[in-house]
Amino acid sequence: RATRGGEEVRGYAPSMGQIFLRRFQMVTQFRQALEEGQVSVHYQPKVSLPGKQVVGVEALVRWVHPEFGRINPDEFVPAVEAAGLVGALTSFVLDEALARVRRWLDEGIEISVAVNLSVRSLADEGFAAQVADALARYDVPARLLTFELTESAVMADPQRALPILGELHELGIELAVDDFGTGYSSLAYLRRLPVDQVKIDKSFVFGMGTDLGDLAVVRSIVELGHSLGLSVVAEGVEDDASRDQLEAMGCDVAQGYLISRPLAEDRLEAWLQARTA
Ligand code: C2E
Ligand code: CA
Ligand code: CA
Ligand code: CA
Q1: pTM confidence score
Q2: Partner residues linked to 232 by β-bridges
Q3: What is the pLDDT of residues 6-28, one digit of tens each?
Q4: Among 60, 61, 177, 178, which is best to mutate for testing ligand 1, by the most ligand atoms less than 8 A from CB?
Q5: Rounded Cα distance, 14 and 19, in Å
């Protein structure tokens, strides 16, 4: 019986070998997946508080693998990063995102798009030039592009990351610190970075209705952000109560399932139309 149980467990939980093999396949197949259209970009709206105006969308990558089905970016992005392939991912997402903004501009709509940056991009000296080239190709003003980066990405190698961030900022691109509050050195280094926005990590936003500690963290990030002249975005807004609390605190922008889940391009268009109708 114990053996049978053991086998059953093994049937559900992948072994180390299976995890390794899957990771290996993801890495070796990623470029082909990009070429074959298995990878796409979904967009999650961000709305202003209290106005509820759509101020931007965040581009979030999706991979539907022919064998594994949907693979979570939390799983494949780190694998792709570790294999040194994240440049291909970033330029794919950036192109898709700028093409989307271009089509909105053609319709007379200004919505900015945020793209997540990996730590590796911040070590690539040609990165800012590559971004400038993409903006020119799509004829999109830099102010409609935001890059989101985690503090751990910046702190991994600040000597290399800071000049690249400076160049991006010079171009007029907005920079946001993602998952704010989860790192170690938040307060001290924030002043040194050329950033425009902080995004409060969703773990604190989830907890703010029930946990006074989380509430205090959210409140202090809003105050700190504002005292540094930054715009403050809350991610993971799932219910009206947190939305209302954030609004009362003066948080500038909300993003989360309450407003919308990340949507494929056609569904995003329908969502936007339904709101303005
Ligand atoms: P992130 O940048 O912190 O993105 C926010 C994640 O929270 C997204 O997960 C989003 O779908 C999810 N989310 C948004 N609102 C809510 C909510 O109200 N409740 C809950 N429970 N979740 C919410 P997703 O799309 O699975 O992405 C996971 C992570 O993968 C992202 O975290 C980001 O670090 C990374 N990622 C996604 N797309 C890209 C990309 O194009 N490039 C890079 N380098 N990383 C990416
Ligand atoms: Ca993000
Ligand atoms: Ca985040
Ligand atoms: Ca995250």
Answers
A1: 0.93
A2: 198
A3: 444 445 677 888 888 888 888 99
A4: 60
A5: 6
